[in-house]
Write a structure and sequence with these properties.
Layout: H1 4-22, E1 35-37, H2 41-46, E2 57-59, E3 64-66, E4 73-80, H3 84-94, E5 101-106, E6 111-117, E7 120-128, E8 134-142
Antiparallel strand pairs: 1-2, 2-4, 3-4, 4-8, 5-6, 6-7, 7-8
Length: about 150
């Protein structure tokens, strides 16, 4: 006999899977090596509740978008002209403006900032860019509803 926790987890996964299948697809075009300006309407509307600097470029091939607007989940990978320290300071300052609550931050060679907002969690990972600037990956996922 399955215990109650296992049943709850399986039910949650099933609902998440069915919900993901019904989410609208993004209107962001794809293509080999494709990038979009961080301030373009497609990016601003799709990743609506995370701050993206106007000079950042969204790496379309590395990003994943399920749903759009303020309920999106997935990952936005950005190539930024900000150096890693500036990018860290930018996200510390701007995420709360979008309604995100800071859970924890670690500033190091690879900096990681973790936030929560309603039923979602966001992780911002900042690394040094290949040719200067920084590479920023913002991953947003549903928060575990049965975590104690």
């Amino acid at each position: 006999m399955l215990n109650l926790s296992f049943k709850a987890v399986m039910l949650g996964l099933g609902i998440a899977f069915i919900s993901a299948c019904t989410m609208p697809a993004t209107t962001i075009p794809s293509g080999e090596g494709s990038t979009l300006a961080g301030n373009s309407p497609e990016v601003a509307n799709s990743y609506a509740d995370i701050p993206i600097s106007a000079n950042d470029q969204l790496s379309v091939n590395e990003s994943l978008l399920l749903n759009t607007g303020e309920q999106w989940i997935g990952r936005a990978v950005l190539k930024s002209k900000l150096d890693p320290v500036q990018a860290f300071e930018y996200y510390i300052a701007k995420m709360p403006d979008q309604g995100w609550i800071n859970i924890t931050t670690v500033q190091s060679k690879t900096s990681v900032l973790t936030y929560e907002k309603a039923a979602r969690v966001a992780t911002v990972q900042i690394d040094k860019g290949t040719l200067g600037g920084s590479r920023i990956a913002v991953t947003v996922s549903p928060r575990d509803a049965i975590a104690q």
